[in-house]
Amino acid sequence: MTVTNSTQYFSLGAYFDTGVFKPLYFLIVLALYICIIGANTSLIVVICVNRSLHEPMYLFLCSLFVNELYGSSGLFPFLLVQILSDIHTVSAPLCFLQISSVYTYANIQYSNLAIMSYDRYLAICHPLQYNTRMTSNKVILLIALSWSILFIAILISIYLSVPLQLCGNIINKVYCDNYSIVKLACSDTTVNNVYGLIVTFLLIISPVFLIFYTYMRILRVCFSGSKQTRQKAFSTCAPHLASLLNVSCGCCFEVLQNRFDMEFVPNMLRILLSLYWLTGQPLLNPVLYGLNMTKIRITCKRLCLVKRQAARGIKTRERHIAQKTLKKYHCTALLRNVLIMGESPLPITPPVNAFEDTLHSSPSSLYSPLTLSSSPSPLEFNDRMKAIRRVGSMSFTPAPQRRPPKSQKQRRAPSLPASSPCLPQ
């Protein structure tokens, strides 16, 4: 057994030859990753865009969704590369980078759930003091502390693991794990073990106790209240409890797999259960909070309806403009025909379906050469051409007119019959 002060790479021993199913596994993992990104990103955008959701509870949810994007981005691209690769090795810096991403994701998940349970405790048990206790500055402070402190704690753990003297480089998992690296060490690991227990107690067990305490107080208040209060509190707290149970079951199996020998469990089942706490939460939380939280569900429906109505409005507006343009062209051609034929426009009664016939006719028919019943004299022809130019320059949009003085007589222009389609609308 060789002792090395610095290992350049680690081998992941949990992978096996998948044969012809390699593209299938790759597509499944890629589809999961796309679903996680799409669901969490859409909820983040909905919360950030709508001012009605700028409340402490929804801001904590936004922090939760950002953490899920962060954790899944530290795992899924690595899995996709390893599935397509024939040699399952990873460099030491990249391995420690993945350890920091995965471990901070798990700890931030518990801290976010603890902060959300405290927020629900204040909202339900102390509703009159909620606005004074949970201010916007306090929300920002809680989110910043939950992220910064956990990053520092995980960086210290990695700093203690990097200088260890290792007797091997095989990790029996599909991703890098800090405790697996500590088990490979030949040197004394007492400091690592003690620090790991302290961090586990402060960052995981303490938030779990806080969550259970707050929900016991919430249930006590709910059972002493009315039926409507119980239903409202249950609809608010049920997603939090389901999310807590989900992540706790995944982390519990991960701890058992690290601490005890699990050789009797099939390899495929071990891989799925070791990945569940990293994939189950990002997939389940958008469904829990997106469907059960009334405000988020209503806002998502409203956005979908607005997009659909906007698309319909664009199509309707374009059709209206096209119909108005055709109607204007029809009226211009009709007036030109009347003036060239030398007839008065007043006795003309166009057919009822004149506009519909124009819509179905080709645009070139509007400007087809007109046949004169009799060849006019040069002077008459010039007068008619001037009239045509005046009609061509007419605007069918009524412009605001100044009211003439009372002393002048207002000249009344000849108007078309009410049934004519040439009247501007």
SSE inventory with pairings:
Layout: E1 9-12, H1 22-49, H2 56-73, H3 76-84, E2 89-91, H4 92-125, H5 130-133, H6 136-161, E3 170-171, H7 178-183, H8 190-224, H9 227-259, H10 267-292, H11 294-341, H12 354-360, H13 378-392
Parallel strand pairs: 1-3
Antiparallel strand pairs: 1-2
Structural features, described:
With 425 residues, the chain is mainly alpha-helical. It has 2 domains: 9-292, Rhodopsin 7-helix transmembrane proteins (Rhopdopsin 7-helix transmembrane proteins); 320-392, no CATH class. It contains 13 helices and 3 strands, in the order βαααβαααβααααααα. It has a 3-stranded mixed sheet. Helix 4 packs antiparallel against helix 6, helix 9 (227-259) runs antiparallel to helix 10 (267-292) and helix 11 (294-341) packs antiparallel against helix 13. The chain starts with 8 loop residues before the first strand and ends in a 33-residue tail after the last helix.
* Amino- and carboxy-terminal Cα gap: 94 Å
CATH-assigned fold name of the largest domain: Rhopdopsin 7-helix transmembrane proteins
Q: How many discrete domains?
A: 2
Helical content stands at: 55-70%
| Average pLDDT | 76
**Strand order, sheet with most strands:** 2-1-3
Largest sheet: 3 strands, mixed
Strand content: under 5%
Structural class, judged by helices and strands?
A: mainly alpha
Uncertain ranges = 343-374, 415-425
Shape: extended
CATH superfamily of the largest domain: Rhodopsin 7-helix transmembrane proteins
The CATH class of the largest domain is Mainly Alpha
Radius of gyration, rounded?
37 Å
CATH architecture term of the largest domain: Up-down Bundle
| Tally of strands | 3
Number of helices: 13
Please write the string of helix (H) and strand (E) elements: EHHHEHHHEHHHHHHH
